[in-house]
Inverse folding.
């Protein structure tokens, strides 16, 4: 599976990629990722390419990604150039952010939420694989709840 | 245990697992995470080792060389331009050899993404006549680190491990070994002046020994072969992984044969020549310079960088290699598409950064009537405030100020010159040129932007810190003491946030340098707001806001203060709440007083 994550610095895109990697490793799949980020620390684009169960390098040419998780609306149009089909884009909407802030009190739970949205679309992992990894996290209950919120 | 490690983490794991117990280095992207990972391993597994940052790469290289003389397995880490700083000891360490074993980890940055040059460290291994390993994945970085330690120990020769941004900053699932860390380290220095203090008379003998070592390693250095076609591709490093991906995508298993060098120098010329003899089409693809290509004896049927077929600048990405395959007919068609770049955002100092306030005050006093020599670090971005005219290499702000001052005062008339340098960069390379400026009567203003950390590369500690990387007691070296110690008379220290007071001090410094024959030094302190402590202790208002009735949309604040939290929307300026830290420093930049704070 070829997956791209687009986020902005400090939003936890890298943590999200690490969660996914752990899920893949637990399933005995190979996993590779590469991060590209600009010089600006705060607010700059963070671009993460991931290959799960395939490939020699983590690089994904444009229009070749199966999925693209977009954590910032601003990068939606750019994401269209990365995926095979627009169906593969999983966007964290502004409404979702408001909802997460209201319900969970911290925007960082958006990662577990978007993970849920991603899990609904893909077919190589079971939901319990993600729950297993999230259980080892700080505040597992809230993260698992946010995950199922995303799966809904 | 299977871990998801970055190339840099994998290198640290490999080195420590292979018994390396002395690591020094200086931070620099993309190498900076290697040493902190080793430090973490030492802490976690209570390993008896010395892993710590040094003041610069030259010192680091010398420290680890001595450690290897003392029979300790050692390593040094830096980015490729750091190797330039370490060149002097590096060359001699090759000649003398390394009894305990020494791995030189040099991280290249083709692109470049965050460096001055695209240089290929493998070339400098070639130049110094030491072997170099070139991993193609983080997994190989882990394996090759261990191989490098063993090879170095066996031949008493420094071994380079060359990584690139794509390896260092990629991650992969890696099965690591058992961390039981049995310690076989035995410190011991066998004095031998013919070797360790050799006079030129004996040097050619040491050189001869080095030649013998490298020849032995050359004979042992075999390449690996993959696939089975007529078109021969010779490669190493990250390019190999890209080639494998293209072979898979286009089913080229029967079209190309790939020869991969784990060790691109020294290669066994004769073996390679035998292999390539039967092929009429040969392509050499390697990141970044033609190191393998130049070692091919007969290049009659060879395409690469030397005949201009492979571009001689820029990163060799998967897309570039695919294009090369198309150009030479390996692939017949490619999906026609142009590569779209992501929305560009100019890099900028963080909102609330004390450097911005410093640059603002400097520009206020010196306007456009000075030459601004900058340096390497976050404050390179003083460019955006038009307070940086030159950026060259570590410490060059000070020596460039010297050169401009002497040029203008000798061949024209006195020109004010303002140098800006960070605290860590000052310790790294700024002190020596300041000594020269004092002795040779140059006068310029040196502003030391002191945020008490190496911010650009991940907030490592500087020699000013009271503690080391383990939070144990260290001796803090005071910048002011150093500056006064070398003979600077005009020395003032102020918090960069106190813009009015800073402006006064800078005005006095300006007067001073125009009539004095000594440099003036102003130290502007403000903790980095990118650190937890810095942000916590930073002064802040309840809210910084723009009075929309007063703002005329002149954008003077955006142009002169250049904070990314000041955004222009609907013909007025407003504050970007998602990035603003409410420091209130921008207030002074509005000529109409429209930026206000709520206490």
């Amino acid at each position: 599976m070829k997956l791209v994550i687009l986020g902005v610095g400090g939003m936890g895109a890298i943590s999200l990629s690490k969660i996914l990697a752990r899920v893949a490793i637990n399933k005995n799949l190979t996993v590779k990722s590469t991060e590209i980020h600009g010089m600006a620390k705060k607010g700059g684009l963070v671009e993460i390419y991931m290959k799960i169960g395939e490939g020699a390098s983590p690089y994904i040419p444009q229009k070749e990604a199966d999925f693209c998780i977009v954590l910032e609306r601003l990068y939606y149009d750019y994401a269209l150039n990365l995926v095979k089909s627009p169906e593969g884009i999983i966007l964290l909407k502004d409404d979702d952010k408001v909802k997460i802030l209201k319900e969970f009190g911290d925007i960082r739970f958006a990662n577990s939420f978007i993970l849920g949205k991603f899990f609904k679309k893909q077919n190589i992992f079971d939901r319990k694989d993600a729950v297993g990894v999230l259980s080892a996290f700080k505040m597992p209950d809230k993260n698992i709840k946010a995950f199922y919120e995303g799966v809904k | 245990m299977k871990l998801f490690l970055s190339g840099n983490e994998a290198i640290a794991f490999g080195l420590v697992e292979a018994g390396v117990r002395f690591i020094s280095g200086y931070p620099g992207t993309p190498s900076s995470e290697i040493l902190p990972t080793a430090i973490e391993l030492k802490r976690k597994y209570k390993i008896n080792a010395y892993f710590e940052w040094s003041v610069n790469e030259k010192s680091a290289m010398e420290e680890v060389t001595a450690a290897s003389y003392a029979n300790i397995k050692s390593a040094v880490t830096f980015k490729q331009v750091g190797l330039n700083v370490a060149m002097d000891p590096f060359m001699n360490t090759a000649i003398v050899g390394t009894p305990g074993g020494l791995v030189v980890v040099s991280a290249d940055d083709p692109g470049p993404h965050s460096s001055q040059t695209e240089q290929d460290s493998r070339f400098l291994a070639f130049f110094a006549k030491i072997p170099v390993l070139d991993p193609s994945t983080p997994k190989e970085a882990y394996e090759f680190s261990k191989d490098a330690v063993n090879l170095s120990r066996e031949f008493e020769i420094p071994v380079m491990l060359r990584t690139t941004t794509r390896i260092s900053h990629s991650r992969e699932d890696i099965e690591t070994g058992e961390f039981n860390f049995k310690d076989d380290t035995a410190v011991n220095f066998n004095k031998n002046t013919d070797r360790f203090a050799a006079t030129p008379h004996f040097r050619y003998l040491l050189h001869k020994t080095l030649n013998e070592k490298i020849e032995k390693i050359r004979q042992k250095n075999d390449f690996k072969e993959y696939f089975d076609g007529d078109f021969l591709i010779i490669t190493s490093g990250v390019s190999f992984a890209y080639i494998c991906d293209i072979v898979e995508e286009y089913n080229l298993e029967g079209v190309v044969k790939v020869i991969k060098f784990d060790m691109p120098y020294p290669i066994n010329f004769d073996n390679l020549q035998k292999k390539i003899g039967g092929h009429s089409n040969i392509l050499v693809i390697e990141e970044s310079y033609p190191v393998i290509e130049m070692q091919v004896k007969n290049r009659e049927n060879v395409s690469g960088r030397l005949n201009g077929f492979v571009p001689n600048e820029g990163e060799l990405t998967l897309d570039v290699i695919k294009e090369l395959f198309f150009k030479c007919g390996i692939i017949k068609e490619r999906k026609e598409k142009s590569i779209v770049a992501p929305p560009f955002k100019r890099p900028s100092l963080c909102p609330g950064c004390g450097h911005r306030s410093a640059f603002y005050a400097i520009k206020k006093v010196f306007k456009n009537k000075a030459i601004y020599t900058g340096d390497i670090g976050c404050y390179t971005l003083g460019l955006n405030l038009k307070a940086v005219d030159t950026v060259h290499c570590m410490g060059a702000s000070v020596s460039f100020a010297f050169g401009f001052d002497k040029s203008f005062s000798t061949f024209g008339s006195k020109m004010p010159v303002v140098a800006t340098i960070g605290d860590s960069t000052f310790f790294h390379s700024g002190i020596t040129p300041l000594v020269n400026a004092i002795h040779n009567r140059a006068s310029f203003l040196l502003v030391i932007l002191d945020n008490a950390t190496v911010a650009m590369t991940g907030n490592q500690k500087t020699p000013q810190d009271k503690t080391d990387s383990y939070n144990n007691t260290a001796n803090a070296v005071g910048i002011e003491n150093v500056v006064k110690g070398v003979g600077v008379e005009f020395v003032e220290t102020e918090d960069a946030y106190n813009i009015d007071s800073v402006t006064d001090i800078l005005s006095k410094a300006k007067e001073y340098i125009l009539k004095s024959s000594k440099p003036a030094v102003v130290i502007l302190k403000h903790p980095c707001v990118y650190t937890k402590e810095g942000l916590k202790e930073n002064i802040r208002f309840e809210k910084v806001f723009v009075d929309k009735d007063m703002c005329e949309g002149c954008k003077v604040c955006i142009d002169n203060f250049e904070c990314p939290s000041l955004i222009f929307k609907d013909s007025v300026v407003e504050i970007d709440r998602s990035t603003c830290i409410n420091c209130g420093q921008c207030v002074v930049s509005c000529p109409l007083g429209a930026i206000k704070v709520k206490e």
Remarks:
- The two ends of chain B are 53 Å apart (CA to CA).
- Chain B touches chain A at residues 2, 4, 113-114, 136-137, 166, 169-173, 238, 240-242, 244-245, 248, 317-319, 322, 335, 337, 339-340, 342-343, 345-348, 350-351, 381, 530, 564, 578-579 (CB under 8 Å).
